[in-house]
Design a protein that fits this description.
elongated, 6 strands, 29% strand
Amino acid sequence: MSDNHSKACEGVPRRLAESGVGRVVACPCGNIHFDIEYLTLRFVPEAFKELADMLTAAQRALDAKHAPAAVLPGGAAVH
């Protein structure tokens, strides 16, 4: 990851998302900040997209593993 963030970065960060886990903000200098409690992870946009894609794939895999079997009329279970 490149370290192009500057303490002198001017402008107001734009909040992209927030939940009970943390928040994601876009810094005017171009970096994406992922804040969790006392930890901030700083990404260039391409690396953040890669992380988001990886987390989405992981969640889909978890959902598929724990998805209940669908029951068709007549009682047959389908996965």
